[in-house]
Write a structure and sequence with these properties.
By secondary structure, the chain is an alpha/beta fold. It has helices at residues 21-33, 52-57, 73-83, 103-113, 129-146, 162-165, 178-184, 208-227, 232-259, 268-299; strands spanning 8-14, 39-45, 63-67, 88-91, 117-121, 158-161, 189-193, 309-314. It has two domains: 8-226, Spore Coat Polysaccharide Biosynthesis Protein SpsA, Chain A; 232-296. It is built from ten helices and eight strands. The longest helix is centred in the last third of the chain and has 32 residues, at 268-299.
């Protein structure tokens, strides 16, 4: 139910979940009402092609954001986060697999340990073998690339302090790396085991294509974390490496000329050396250009919206 100053904001991204919404809404309202504090529920219809929007518009005491097309879960969550007014924000999937009865567990964990974020951990999963395999591979890559030790980064069921969600700007498949982004920003994070229920209606949209996009986004946030302030550094490292290799090739070509009598025009090492040195100059210049463009974008360029909300319904 909506209040002037909600203490909690519940953000629910949905895509083709017409069969799950009504039951989930009743469960969320039941769990939140028992807390005895004002709350709001924000549903985001992420370009659904079934009757999800019609079902959402029939529900009372909620806010519905209707995206003008399907942008993906990260963007839908981002839209909900930016609309949230509560001091604490709860995100929960619209497929009904997260159990709203576990919300007090998240709150208790946050209060007890004074955390900024509490993430749900689906220790016992009700997913297909394919999804479980993709999840394990993703977890391994996250640990290797970004040192992410969270057990279940793919679980959307979380409790955040307002300051944490307002620091985010999500896109692509970055909802899987929210915890890593927040940890890098200095926010404290904890986990609590939550119930993972079997899906009743519809099917999971997670597949190999999304897994690959997630890997690309993983590399992106690694780059942003490491080099967003000075991208010149990574290109500088590469240019130095390539320059050293070029120097080695040129030195060997000179050795062939002076001691083996081989003409420069017959030496492949000379050509490789010259090419490497030119490449090192290009890489360094490329780093300079990117560095300047980022500074210009951050300091002067106007913000271009990445998504559009077709309509907002306050019911």
């Amino acid at each position: 139910m909506k209040e002037i100053n909600p203490y909690y904001s519940v953000v629910v991204p949905t895509y083709n979940e017409a069969g799950n919404i009504e039951k989930l809404d009743k469960e969320i309202k039941s769990a939140m009402s028992k807390l005895g504090t004002p709350f709001e529920i924000i549903y985001i219809n992420d370009g659904s092609t079934d009757d999800t929007l019609s079902v959402l518009k029939s529900i009372k005491n909620v806010t519905v954001l209707d995206m003008n097309r399907n942008y993906g879960q990260s963007t839908a969550i981002d839209a909900g986060f930016k609309m949230a007014r509560g001091e604490f924000v709860i995100s929960i999937d619209g497929d009904g697999q997260n159990d709203p009865k576990d919300i007090p567990l998240l709150i208790e964990k946050m209060d007890t340990e004074q955390l900024d974020v509490v993430a749900g951990w689906r220790k016992v999963r009700n997913d297909s073998k394919k999804i479980k395999v993709l999840t394990r591979i993703g977890r391994l890559l996250r640990r290797i690339i970004i040192s992410d030790t969270v057990h279940d980064s793919g679980c959307t069921f979380r409790l955040y302090r307002k300051e944490a969600v307002k620091s985010l700007d999500l896109q692509g498949e970055m909802h899987r790396y929210i915890l890593a982004l927040l940890r890098w920003k200095g926010f404290t994070i904890g986990e609590v085991v939550v119930n993972d229920r079997a899906r009743v209606y519809g099917k999971s949209a997670y597949n190999i294509t999304k897994a690959v996009r997630g890997l690309i986004d993983l590399l992106f946030i690694w780059f942003i974390h490491k080099y967003s302030q000075r991208p010149l550094h990574i290109f500088g490292y590469l240019s130095i490496l390539v320059f050293v290799l070029g120097t080695a090739f040129m030195a060997y070509a000179t050795y062939q000329k002076l001691f083996l009598g081989m003409g420069i025009n017959r030496s492949g090492h000379f050509l490789l050396g010259a090419f490497s040195m030119l490449t090192s100059i290009v890489l360094f210049s490329f780093g300079l250009v990117i560095d300047l463009l980022i500074k210009i974008h951050l300091n002067n360029s106007p913000y271009e919206k990445r998504y559009y909300i077709r309509a907002r319904y306050d019911q």
